[in-house]
DNA sequence: GTCATGGTTCGAATTTAGTTGAACCAATGC
DNA sequence: GCATTGGTTCAACTAAATTCGAACCATGAC
């Protein structure tokens, strides 16, 4: 078979928790990731952190927090990972939240 | 004079940080406090926590986090404290944020 | 198969946040 | 004056989040 990699677990739309989403977004680095993904899906290797020297384990952990909160989807794609912002799910559960979070420019990540 | 109590420090509207606001709101207990204050100003003594047995030092700390994030205003009033949601400031800096956070009912605090 | 690339996971160390009792303070009631 | 009520602050402790290296795993190129 072409692939037997166990896909990472993602919470169902109905299981998203507002407090968990807010927490995930409350870190500047994670918020910056979300802003990048707002422009469209991105290969993880092309998703940059503020400090380019950050170890990959740290980067992976940041993605995990966002994924477990239901903010991003992380799928295997070739030898890498494809990250997608779960816009529809977020909008369905917390209408307007993403929009006003992305609108802000006071955290340096315009 | 009638009062010389040093007022608690509150951040200026222009100093509010989105990530700090999101963090403050990411705790269920704090979010529940904000929901109560959404109905109007409240004396702190009448602002209830989920566990009535919570020590006052803990309650005071919860209020401090909300105050320092710029979400609530805490003013001396008689022998107690008057808590007010900083609606206008929040709306000015993060339009729509409060509305969609208050709209959610998935955290038990409908 | 071998190698390089891209990421996850684990464990340990560090850092940060939450909890609590005790001490203290201001205002009101008496 | 004294006692009560309501709340802040401090210090110590517990709990949780973050960071990072090391080990590991799949894929794709060769």
Structural notes for this entry:
Two copies of one chain form a homodimer. The first copy, chain A, has 110 residues and is α+β, with helices and mostly antiparallel strands. Chain A has a single domain (16-103), classed as Arc Repressor Mutant, subunit A. Helix content of chain A is 41%, strand content 13%. The first copy, chain A, has helices at 18-25, 28-37, 56-68, 87-93, 97-103; strands at 42-43, 72-77, 80-85. A three-stranded antiparallel β-sheet of chain A has the order 1-3-2.
Known CATH architecture of chain A: Orthogonal Bundle
What is the subunit arrangement here?
A: homodimer
Most extensive contact: A-B, 24 and 24 residues
The level-1 CATH class of chain A: Mainly Alpha
Low-confidence stretches of chain A: none
Q: Domains counted in the coordinates of chain A: how many?
A: 1
Number of separate strands of chain A: 3
Name of the CATH homologous superfamily of chain A = Winged helix-like DNA-binding domain superfamily/Winged helix DNA-binding domain
User: How are the strands ordered across the major sheet of chain A?
Assistant: 1-3-2
Shape of chain A: globular
Order of helices and strands of chain A: HHEHEEHH
In round numbers, the mean pLDDT of chain A is: 93
| Beta-strand percent range of chain A | 5-15%
CATH topology-level fold name of chain A: Arc Repressor Mutant, subunit A
Radius of gyration of chain A: 14 Å
Q: Given the structure, what is the number of helices of chain A?
A: 5
> How far do the termini of chain A sit from each other?
44 Å
Helix residue percentage of chain A? 40-55%
What class do helices, strands and sheet pairing of chain A give?
alpha+beta
